[in-house]
Write a structure and sequence with these properties.
Two copies of one chain form a homodimer. With about 425 residues, chain A is an alpha/beta fold. Chain A has helices at about 10-15, 25-45, 45-55, 65-75, 80-95, 135-150, 170-175, 185-195, 215-225, 250-260, 275-290, 295-305, 315-325, 355-360, 400-415, 420-430, and strands at about 1-5, 105-110, 110-120, 125, 155-160, 180-185, 205-210, 230, 240-245, 270-275, 305-310, 330, 350, 390-395. The longest helix of chain A has 19 residues, at about 80-95.
C-alpha cells in the first residue's frame, strides 16, 4: 500500500489516484457482449441453452427452477444460517419499509390541482451472480424492496453451478423473500433475456443486481439502446474509504480494509488519517490479519493498488472523501456524528468503531447495492424507490383553466407553438358559448 | 390517421403499432457524436469554438454569457410574457417544493441505528435546445427544481443563434430562476463539455434536458461510459395518448392531438375511444383546426404515423394505455378520477375536459420532462428528487454490534467472505478484553 501526504501531493497526482482507472470497459468484452445480446434477441431460449453450455459448462433441459427444488432448499440450510437470514430480513425490511413516501397533492392555484401517485414498477428482473460462493445476500437486498414496493412480477436469474443446479442458499433466500420465478441462466445472456424476453423469460421493465464485467457491460448496453428497459445503476469495482483519527483502533481499521480488499483484485481501499503512527500500526495489522484469510491472494492484489493518506485534519479528510465520492465511507473518529452534515458524496456511511462495513453488507438494514466509480455524486444506493415510479396528475376545473389560460397562451405564443395555445383557446371559447 | 378496432387487431400488429420504431439510433449519428465527444475531451474549449463555427455558423470569442447581457434581457421581454412566466414559476415551485421528502431514521434492532440524509447533487448541467423558437419553458422545468434542491453549482448550456447570441427569453428565465452561469454552446459538444469539463465549463455530476438526436445520442453515450456522469433520463420523440368516451368534446381532443403533433414529425399521437362517431368528428375537427397552424406541415407528417383505436370500454382503453406507457395521457371521460387508480404506466396524466396537455407543458406546476419510448414503465418524470441523492448511514453501539454479530458472521462465512466476518469478530474480542 502506497503512502502519501496531502501536503506534498499535487492536484494532478491526486486526480490520478482518485481516477478509478479500472472501470474502463474492455473492447473485446463489449463486442462479445453485443453478439450475445443480438443472439438472445434473435433465437431466444435456444441461445440461452447454447450459452449456458458454453460458459457454465452444463447442459440444461429446462431453465425454470421447479417449486419443489426451491422448497427442498429449506431442508439443506443449517438452522444457524436460517436464523441469521431471518434477522437480516427483519432489519432490511424495517429500514426499507420506512422509506415509503407520502403522495402529494397541491392546488397550485384556484381550480388547478396537481398530484402524484407512487406506483411499483410492474415487472422487475433481479440478477444474482454465481461464482465461487453463492452471494445470497444480494437476493435479500434486491428481493426485499421489490416485494415491499409491490412489484407485480419479480423474476430472478442466476447462473447454474457445474452440476446445473442453483445454490440452495439462493433458492432458500428467494423462497423466504417470496420470489417464485427463478431461472437458471447467468451472464450477459441473462441480461439479454430480461431485456428482450424469450419464450420462457419475460421482458422486464427494469434490471437490478451486480455481476461480472460481462453482466455489467450487458446492462450498460441495453440501458443505452433506448429499448424501454431501465437498469438500477452503473456498476464498477467495490470501494471503501476509511477516515481515522488517533482514537481509532488499528486492528479494526485493518479488518475493514481487508473485508473490502477480499472482494476482488480491483476493489479499492483507501485510508485517510491524521495520525502517522496509526498508519504504521494499520499496515502492521493488515500484514498480521491477512495471513489466515482464505482469499488473501485476492486481498493482496487489491491492496497493492490501494493507498494511505496522511491529512492535516478530519475536515480536510472529509473534503477529500467528498471529492472521491466513495461507495462505502467509514468514520473511525471521535464524535463521528459531528461530521455527518459535512459528508456530501458517499453511498453508505459507517459511523464509529462499532460499525464495520460488513454489518451493512448483510444485516444492519441499509442496502448494500451502492454507487461506485464516483457515481455517489449523483446516484443513490438502492432503496424502495428504485422499485417504484411516480406519475403526476393534474385536474383543472373550468374556472381553473380560465385562471391559468393567459399564462399558457402567452408562453405558447412566444415559443411559436400555436397549437399548444389553441388547446386552451378552444376550451375558453366553448366556455363562453 | 389510421383507424383500428381492438376487436379485430392482432397482438402482433398491436405490438408493432406500439413499438416506437422511430427511436432507434442512427449509426452515422453515433459515430459523429463519438468523434465530437473525443475531440472536446482532448482539446477542450478550442474544440467548442470550432464546432460552434461549424454547426451553429457563428464565430464566438467567448462562450460565457456576461452578467450584463443576462440583466439586459429583462428590458426586451414584454410585460405580458413576464407575468406569464411569473405565474408559471409560482405554480412549478409550489408543486416541486411539496416534493421535499422527510429523512428517515430507524433503530432496526437495539443499538443499530440506520438513517438517511437527502442531499442536493453538487454540480448540475442544464441543456436548453435552440432551434426555430427559444424553448424557455425548458429552463423553468430544469432550473426551478435544481434551485429548490439546493444544487451548489448550476450551469446552463444553450446554442447561439446565427448572430452568436442566446435568445433573450432564455436569458430572462434563467435570470429570474437564479441561474448565473450560462454558456453559449449547444449540440453534442455541449454535452461533452459538461461530461468531461473544459478550461471554461466545469465537469458536472448530472446532465439534464432535452435536445435533438445529436444531444440525445451524446447523453446516452456519456452515461454508458461509466465516467461518473449521470443523465436525467433517456429521451425519445414526444407522445400523447387520449382516452375519450362519448361525453368528450371532439374539438378539444383534436386540439390536444394537434398540440402534440406540432412538436415534430416523429411525435406520436394516439386516440382510444369507445365511440366511433366521436372518432369521425375528431378527424373532421383536426382537418379544420390544422389549416391555420403555422406548424401544420410538421403536424401533418406526425399525424400520418398516428392512429385511432376503437375500444369496447374505458377499462380496456386503460389496459391498452398501460401497455403503451405514454409520456402524456389525457382522460376525456366521465368521472376521470374514477380511473386514476387503474393507471399503471404514464408520465403525466391530464384529467377531464378542462385539462389540456399544454397547461402541464407550461404552467400547471407539474414537470414537462417526462419518460418517452415506454420508459414510463420504470422511470419517473423529472422532480425535485432528480436533483437530489440519498446517503444511508448506520451507527452501532458496542451492544448493537454484539446483537447483530452472529447474523453477520454466519452469513459472511456462508458466502466464504471470511474477512467480512473478521471485522466483526475482532471487535467482539476487543470488547471482551
Amino acid at each position: 500500500m502506497k503512502t502519501y501526504s496531502i501536503n506534498s501531493i499535487g492536484q494532478e497526482k491526486l486526480d490520478r489516484l482518485f481516477g478509478r482507472a479500472s472501470c474502463k470497459r474492455n473492447r473485446g468484452i463489449t463486442s462479445l457482449v453485443k453478439k450475445i445480446l443480438r443472439n438472445v434477441q434473435k433465437s431466444g431460449d435456444k441461445a440461452l441453452f447454447a450459452y449456458t453450455e458454453q460458459f457454465d459448462c452444463c447442459r440444461l433441459n429446462n431453465i425454470c427452477v421447479q417449486r419443489s427444488e426451491t422448497a427442498g432448499s429449506a431442508k439443506i440450510i443449517p438452522q444457524a444460517l436460517k436464523r441469521a437470514i431471518g434477522r437480516a430480513i427483519l432489519n432490511i425490511s424495517a429500514f426499507h419499509k420506512a422509506q415509503k413516501r407520502k403522495e402529494i397533492s397541491v392546488a397550485t392555484m384556484p381550480g388547478v390541482k396537481c398530484f402524484q401517485k407512487i406506483l411499483p414498477i410492474d415487472t422487475v428482473g433481479l440478477y444474482v451472480p454465481g461464482g465461487t460462493a453463492p452471494l445470497f445476500s444480494t437476493v435479500l437486498m434486491l428481493a426485499i424492496p421489490a416485494k415491499l414496493a409491490g412489484c407485480t412480477r419479480i423474476i430472478l436469474c442466476t447462473p447454474p453451478g457445474k452440476d446445473g443446479a442453483v445454490a440452495s442458499e439462493i433458492l432458500y433466500v428467494a423462497q423466504v423473500c417470496g420470489i417464485r420465478e427463478i431461472y437458471t441462466v447467468g451472464g450477459a445472456q441473462a441480461i439479454a433475456a430480461m431485456a428482450y424476453g424469450t419464450e420462457t423469460i419475460p421482458k422486464v421493465d427494469k434490471i437490478f443486481g451486480p455481476g461480472n464485467q460481462f453482466v455489467t457491460a450487458a446492462k450498460m448496453i441495453v440501458a443505452s439502446e433506448n429499448s424501454g428497459v431501465a437498469i438500477d445503476m452503473p456498476a464498477g469495482p467495490s470501494e471503501v474509504l476509511v477516515i481515522a483519527d488517533s482514537s481509532a483502533n488499528p486492528a479494526f481499521i485493518a479488518s475493514d480494509l481487508l473485508s473490502q480488499a477480499e472482494h476482488g483484485p480491483d476493489s479499492q481501499t483507501i485510508l485517510i488519517t491524521t495520525d502517522s503512527s496509526l498508519m504504521t500500526m494499520v499496515k502492521k495489522e493488515i500484514s498480521k490479519q491477512i495471513v489466515t484469510l482464505p482469499r488473501r491472494e485476492i486481498a493482496m492484489q487489491s491492496l497493492q493498488k490501494s493507498f494511505l493518506f496522511l491529512a492535516n485534519s478530519i475536515d480536510e479528510s472529509i473534503v477529500l472523501s467528498n471529492r472521491y465520492a466513495p461507495e462505502h465511507l467509514i468514520l473511525q473518529v471521535r464524535n463521528p456524528e459531528k461530521w455527518v452534515n459535512k459528508i456530501r458524496n458517499a453511498g453508505s456511511v459507517f459511523l464509529g468503531r462499532w460499525s464495520p462495513e460488513s454489518v451493512g453488507d448483510y444485516a444492519s438494514g441499509t442496502n448494500h447495492t451502492l454507487p461506485t466509480s464516483g457515481y455517489a455524486r449523483s446516484v443513490s444506493g438502492l432503496s424502495l424507490e428504485s422499485f417504484q415510479k411516480t406519475i403526476t396528475f393534474q385536474k383543472l376545473t373550468k374556472k381553473g383553466l380560465s385562471n391559468i389560460a393567459s399564462a399558457v397562451i402567452e408562453m405558447a405564443d412566444s415559443e411559436k407553438l400555436e397549437a399548444h395555445g389553441n388547446a386552451v383557446k378552444i376550451r375558453l371559447l366553448s366556455q363562453k358559448s
